[in-house]
Amino acid sequence: MAGTDGGTLVLIPAHDEAATIGRVLEAVARHVHDADVLVVNDGSRDATGAIVAAARVPQLVLPCNLGYGRAVQTGLRYGVRRGYATVVMLDADGQHEPAEIPRLLEAMRRGADVVIGSRFVEARRYSGPPARRPGMRLFSVLTWLLIGQRVYDTTSGFKALTRAAYEPLAFGNFLDFHAESLVFWGRSGFRIEEVPVAVAPRTSGRSMYSPLASATYPLKTLMLMLVGLMDARAYRSVR
Amino acid sequence: MNLRALIAINAIGVGVIVLSLVLLRRKRLHVGFAVLWSGAALLGMLFASFRFALEVVTFFIPTSVPFSAIVVAALTFVFAVLIYFSVKLSDVVRQVTEIAQHIGLHELETRGGPRREER
User: Fold this and answer.
1) Which chain A positions have a beta carbon within 8 Å of B95's beta carbon?
2) Which of A176, A217, A219 to mutate to test the interface with B (most CBs of B within 10 A)?
3) pLDDT for A186-204, tens place per residue?
4) Is 0.85 exceeded by the ipTM?
């Protein structure tokens, strides 16, 4: 891709998503114009890489599986290097609808720094696995207590970010850019907005959260929320 | 447990948690390990501060006195942590190997490697 001054990057992390990545890329091409697309192939062992190559979409290939957070962070570092004004993060498993990307970008034009495609800000058809709902509510309430703003969907991977919002994430200490990044943004003075979107249930592939990862995720996120508070204070002092 | 020992153990526990947070913030400690050591510190403070917690452990670990139960639990914890570290180290070794191979291959392809003769 050519270097840019400004412009939008649609960033799609993918690990073993051969069943859905082709459809996602077609939908992005159909609904999003004037944006570059980058797939971060996170050490896929299936045909994900071949499908992305056949679609002639630029692909950053990681030689081994680093996990969702590090894959996204690698893409964000690319965005910083190339000077993109906006990054839109989208999952490769087909759960997020690319047709909704223009609505996220519209909210950004209204002045938001962080726009979250939210499953829960209005009642929509996806409500998530039952085992995760108490945790989702807990982090929504905790985030509200820490930043003074209720964010209903703290674990959405469907986000649009301005350069000022995504650059600290590219080099900072974050897990999966969920509640811990919301705390950092909220306390650093970034404007966060939620836009209701429909999210389809996963129909193929595997969740990035194994049972063990699901058990340790809340504890890791809590620790990183504390770190986010400290980092936000340091960020405000140098801004 | 006398008061001085209790204060010392809780102070050490708080120190471990603070140290974990500081190292995590400086990116010197992975968040998974920070959770592990903070959790261990909290457990140590819990057992030191509440005899009831110690008695619950003694109930599940068949020893005659709570102190023996703590030793057994501590040894089990040490072994579990060593196994966990071994797994994580193995992951790191594997990833470093793959990255090194990837870089080597990439550099070769960039420089131009030997070409197979047409037969």
Assistant:
1) 64, 66
2) A219
3) 999 999 999 998 877 666 6
4) no
